[in-house]
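Exercise 7. Given the encoded structure of a 288-residue chain, write a plausible sequence.
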């Protein structure tokens, strides 16, 4: 009979409050994730499969494993298990309308266009941005690039493939679908993004709470439904860092349940639902 501490959840693996606190500390310091104690049952159910996969008997053993320097891949599995990759094409459609109605018309003669999709998951967000830009700025007319980053290497592999179930593409406007998505040979249920779209996007692995190896400035940053996992201090630091990456007048788009707060509020004006613009007085960042 195994000894299970009184505060452990009933189930296959021992998971004490001390284990939970150690896990929450690690998730916060390495990934900015905020795990309230009320999430303990959810954390248990999300991570139980990792313990099974690694042949471990308790969360204490799992914590010991995560501590090993050689286990960086397991630490990423942890983030993957604690966050979701839910996304879709043209999610929160009003942000794409703002691209068409405000950002693109204001570009004027500006040749260099830079957009960052931060926390891009399986790629539907940067591909939606790419379709919107290409519709108004045909290939070759500007120097246009989209940087698409995520912490999760497995989801980035999927994003780079750019292959999606046809039914997941129903939110793509029909004319965009015909122009930039094509059937996958031999897989009638699947479609893939075409070369014009892919050519605009660079995918890269990036933990948003670590250093960013680029300078910008960006014309727009999409960081939607990512900061929701972070504690308030991490969120506020992120908003301020985004401000430093945007040109004056640049757009910041965040998720439907997220709000800007803290010192960065002074650096932005509100420009629509979960849409912010960097104030001119804060000036552009250094170009790369
Ligand atoms: C719910 S998805 C959002 C996808 C897309 N932005 C959207 O709104 O449809 C959240 C993404 O954030 C990523 N993520 C979580 N923590 C992160 C971190 N510390 N740094 C970078 N990405 C992170 C996850 O891997 C996941 O793909």
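Solution.
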């Amino acid at each position: 009979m195994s000894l299970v501490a009184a505060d452990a959840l009933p189930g296959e693996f021992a998971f004490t409050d001390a284990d939970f606190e150690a896990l929450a500390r690690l998730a916060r310091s390495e990934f900015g994730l905020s795990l309230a104690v009320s999430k303990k049952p959810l954390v248990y159910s999300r991570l139980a499969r990792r313990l099974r996969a690694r042949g471990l008997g308790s969360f204490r053993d799992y914590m010991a494993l995560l501590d090993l320097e050689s286990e960086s891949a397991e630490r990423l599995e942890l983030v993957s298990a604690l966050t979701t990759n839910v996304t879709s094409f043209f999610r929160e459609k009003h942000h794409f309308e703002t691209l068409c109605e405000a950002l693109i018309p204001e570009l004027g003669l500006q040749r260099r266009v830079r957009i960052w999709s931060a926390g891009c998951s399986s790629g539907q967000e940067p591909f939606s941005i790419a379709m919107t830009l290409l519709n108004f700025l045909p290939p070759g007319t500007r120097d246009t690039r989209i940087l698409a980053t995520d912490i999760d290497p497995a989801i980035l592999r999927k994003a780079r493939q750019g292959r999606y179930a046809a039914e997941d593409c129903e939110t793509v406007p029909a004319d965009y679908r015909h122009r930039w998505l094509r059937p996958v040979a031999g897989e009638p249920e699947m479609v893939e993004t075409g070369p014009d779209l892919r050519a605009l996007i660079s995918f890269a692995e990036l933990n948003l709470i670590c250093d960013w190896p680029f300078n910008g400035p960006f014309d727009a940053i999409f960081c939607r439904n990512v900061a929701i996992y972070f504690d308030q201090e991490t969120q506020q630091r992120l908003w301020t860092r985004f401000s430093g990456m945007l040109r004056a007048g640049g757009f910041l788009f965040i998720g439907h349940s997220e709000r800007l707060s803290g010192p960065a509020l002074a650096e932005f004006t509100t420009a629509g639902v979960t849409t912010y613009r960097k104030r001119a007085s804060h000036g552009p960042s250094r170009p790369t």
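Remark. DSSP finds ten helices and ten strands in the chain. Students should compare their own answers with the one above.
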